[in-house]
From TrEMBL:
<dbReference type="InterPro" id="IPR046341">
    <property type="entry name" value="SET_dom_sf"/>
</dbReference>
<protein>
    <recommendedName>
        <fullName>SET domain-containing protein</fullName>
    </recommendedName>
</protein>
<dbReference type="InterPro" id="IPR040415">
    <property type="entry name" value="SETD9"/>
</dbReference>
Length: 371
């Protein structure tokens, strides 16, 4: 596998300099295409598994040189979704160990035209499967035992006074692995003015996707010790009425919902994770509680369009169609190499800000994108 990974690393460096990307006029779009190409290679390599052959690796590299941006984006989404689905399956196995037994019993009793007792040991009074009482710490350890890794937040090893807490991998993952979720409230460009600390740059827990959506992790903190309704704050639209997010019941014990604690590397160091946009399909009801994000605003009423560097809002849906979202636009962190028991470092890419912190050192001068 080490030999195959070397081939992938060489392909990443070569494709990043490909003249294919020169067709993207917008610098941000250019950077996104380069990043997407890397994610395509990394996540596809991860999905090959330990039994991959050299022919498999060469086929993926060849596809990466020819596939369209749309096709690569689709493959990355599929690769990431497969990993997250496996994680959600693990979470269900921990919280609902008797769910299969419940389904079997329910089916058998229905065949006999009997009714499951209201206060069954398998279900709560309202018919919802009971969850095991387990702490976030216990869940984190079970995750490591089952999947080989978990995350810890502790004092950073970055050598500057503002480093504070850092995010550490406890265990082992291979390149292309999804190692963390970026939790919090998702804001579309139309709602930038609602983001706490956005305009005065006083909120250090913001992250921006390539499509302009911003995620604020400030109120998520380190999660919690139960599954609960969570909307981050009283969400209010421009008319002053509360936006209804009452259906968002999230598992606050998610041990991977800690990406906002990842630090930027010190000068001379390289990042070992990268941002990956992940559009979670909202039809996946069984997985929803483990996706630590909620949407700010009423997407069914508001539509945004971009012209140059300006965002404009339109209250009239195109073609009179409903704009109820089918996906939740989130962010995860993906490993860019094999990792073992180390601090996770993410390139913040602050080159487009007017005032960078004293501690900030660009990872790669070529990656600085000006406004």
């Amino acid at each position: 596998m080490a030999f195959l990974f070397q081939k992938f690393q060489e392909a990443v460096k070569t494709l990043a300099k490909s003249p294919t990307f020169a067709f993207a006029r917008d610098p941000r779009q250019l950077q996104y295409q380069i990043d997407l190409n890397r994610l395509f290679l990394y996540t596809s390599y991860n999905r090959l598994g330990k039994n991959a052959s050299e022919a498999d690796a060469e086929e993926i590299i060849e596809i990466a040189t020819k596939a369209s941006v749309a096709d690569q984006q689709m493959v990355v989404q599929e690769n990431v979704h497969a990993q997250i689905k496996a994680f959600c399956t693990f979470m269900d196995a921990v919280f609902l160990p008797n769910e299969k037994k419940v389904n079997d019993v329910s089916f058998e009793l229905s065949q006999q035209t009997k009714i499951l007792p209201q206060h069954s040991d398998l279900r709560s009074a309202n018919g919802v499967p009971k969850q095991r009482l387990i702490s976030q710490v216990e869940l984190s350890q079970k995750l490591k035992d089952e999947l080989g890794y978990t995350l810890n937040v502790k004092p950073s090893q970055i050598s500057h006074k503002d480093a504070g807490q850092g995010l550490f991998l406890d265990g082992v993952v291979d390149v292309g692995a999804v190692v963390a979720f970026y939790p919090g409230v998702v804001y579309s460009p139309a709602y930038y003015h609602h983001i706490p600390g956005y305009l005065d740059e006083q909120n250090p827990y913001l992250i921006t996707r390539h499509d302009g959506n911003v995620i604020d992790a400030q109120l998520w903190g380190r999660g919690g010790d139960k599954k609960e309704l969570w909307n981050g704050r009283k969400m209010v639209d421009e008319k002053g009425s509360q936006v209804d997010n009452s259906d968002d019941v999230l598992e606050r014990r998610n041990p991977l919902a800690l990406a906002h604690f990842a630090n930027h590397p010190s000068k001379g160091m390289l990042p070992n994770v990268m941002i990956c946009p992940y559009d979670f399909p909202l039809i996946e009801n069984d997985m929803r509680a483990y996706i630590p994000n909620v949407l700010f605003g009423n997407a069914a009423e508001e539509n945004t369009e971009r012209f140059g560097s300006f965002w404009f809002k339109s209250r009239v849906p195109r073609n009179n169609e409903s704009h109820v979202p089918t996906t939740l636009k989130t962010v995860v962190l993906v490993a860019t190499r094999a990792l073992q028991d180390e601090e996770l470092l993410l390139n913040y890419r602050l080159g487009n800000t007017k005032r960078c912190p004293e501690w900030y050192a660009p990872v790669d001068e070529e990656e600085i994108i000006e406004e």
